[in-house]
Structures are given as structure tokens and as C-alpha cells.
Amino acid sequence: MCVSKGMCVTIHNVFDDKCQNIMISCLAANKKRLGDYMIEMKEVYKIYPNGVKAINGINVSIHPGEFVYVVGPSGAGKSTFIKMMYREEKPTKGKIFINNKDLGSIKEKEIPYVRREIGVVFQDFKLLPTLTVFENVAFALEVIGEQPSIMKKKVLDVLDLVQLKHKARQFPDQLSGGEQQRVSIARSIVNSPEVVIADEPTGNLDPDTSWEIMKTLEEINNRGTTVVMATHNKEIVNSMKKRVIAIEDGMIVRDEARGEYGIYD
Ligand SMILES: Nc1ncnc2c1ncn2[C@@H]1O[C@H](COP(=O)(O)OP(=O)(O)OP(=O)(O)O)[C@@H](O)[C@H]1O
Ligand SMILES: [Mg+2]
Q1: Which ligand minimizes its atom distance to the CA of 265?
Q2: Is the pTM of this model over 0.85?
Q3: Whose CA is nearest to atom 16 of ligand 1?
Q4: Nearest CA to ligand 1 atom 1
């Protein structure tokens, strides 16, 4: 019923009083949706098998559509925090929900399905060197058995978004670092995930190229995708004025709506 607020307004204009009830139910539905979290962690701890306590009691909620930077000194637990979101690492204790799904209760064989809802971007791109740009992005769709004609359209659409359609036939080693990272971003979003998680995506890139990557991630976020990004890039964090979660010794020590990087290296 309540497709959007805009639809309710249209109905309201046409049906006047009768719409009031519809509006009320729309607001209730929207409220419920606003209360949902894209990512939620409750009392999460991670102790690695060697005894390192990487995460020490984290509680956090991230709404759909947010852009969140994760900052903190080296070894603070940022990557561990992020890896637990896409089930690369399991928490030792506590609960993690992605899009209201309890990651602790999913079976091993269901992990690939959950991962499809989450796009991941790495510092070192992780492209397959023997595949072209097109094939690297298409690979994410091939594994889910997408039809070739739909696959082609989806791949070309995301390559267009990252402005690399003209490089579709190139191999990764024929691209610059920034272009390779844009291919990896295209790959991360080709399944239309609700969340993109990036661990230092600009870590290997020069300042200008880092900004290009940020603009691409911002564009993806503007289209409604939640973005969580761990970074050591002070300039970017301070300029973008997004939510900043600072982690130290496996704990959240700061969580600000329009935050700053802080005093880390
Ligand atoms: N697989 C692992 N096994 C054991 N200890 C680990 C493992 N991965 C990370 N650690 C340890 O957990 C702690 C947190 O590491 P993590 O990689 O999450 O930090 P980080 O904040 O991402 O650091 P950086 O900024 O250097 O990337 C560190 O003490 C690290 O040595
Ligand atoms: Mg890290």
C-alpha cells in the first residue's frame, strides 16, 4: 500500500479526507522502516585463536542509506569489525544483524547468499588477472546463474557508473590503480547489494585517485546504498562530514554524525 510518501501525497490530493487514514498507515509503515537497521551489532567480542582480543564489546547500529567512516590507529580492530559484517570472521560473543538477518544463525551453506547482499571492496582490489574488466564484474553474476543478456546489461550499467565502459575489454594489468579500484567497486555493486563495505579502498592510491574513488562511493551512497568504509585518509574524512566511528583497542571510543578523523597517523 505505502509505496512512498510521494504516492500518499498524490492520493491525498485526489481523495482528500479519505486519505487521512492512508496517510496514518503510511506514516506508521515508514516509521517501522526507519526503525530498522541495515547493520546492528550487540555486545560483540572477537578473540582470535592466538588470544588477541581484537574487538571488546561493540554495540552499534547503522541505518539504511548511511555513509559511515571507521577510523582508528593501526591494530585497533577496524578490519576485524568490518570482516565480521560480511562473515569473513565470526564474533566470539555477541550478535550481528545485517538487514535484520542474524548472521550467527545462518548456516555455512547460506553464507554465499548473505554475501550477495553485501558488496566488499578491498585495499588491493582482488581482481582476477586473467579475466577482462567485463569478465571480472560479470563473474559475480555468473556464480548466481544470471541470464547472459541480463548479465551483459547489468555489467555495462555498473561499468558506466564507474566510468569504465570503454575499458571493458582490457585486463587488470592494463589499468591504473584507480581504474582497477573502480572495477572492483563495479564488481561489488553489480548484484545491487544494500550495503557496500570497503576496507581502506584508497590505501594504495595517490590523493587525486583517492578522491575519484570517494566520489564513486558517494554516488553509490546517493543512490541509496549503505556504505561503511575503514580508512586512514584524514583529508577525505575531514572533508566529507559523514558519520565517523572511531575504534581503539577493539572498542568504539567516538561515534559522531558529522565527524572528524581525529589524531591518528
Ligand atoms: N587473523 C588474525 N589472527 C590473529 N590476530 C589477528 C588476526 N587479524 C588481526 N589480528 C589482530 O587483531 C588486532 C586488530 O587487527 P585489525 O586488522 O582488525 O586492525 P586494523 O584496525 O584494521 O589495523 P590497520 O589499520 O593496520 O589495518 C591486531 O592486534 C591484529 O594483530
Ligand atoms: Mg585494517
Answers
A1: 1
A2: yes
A3: 77
A4: 48
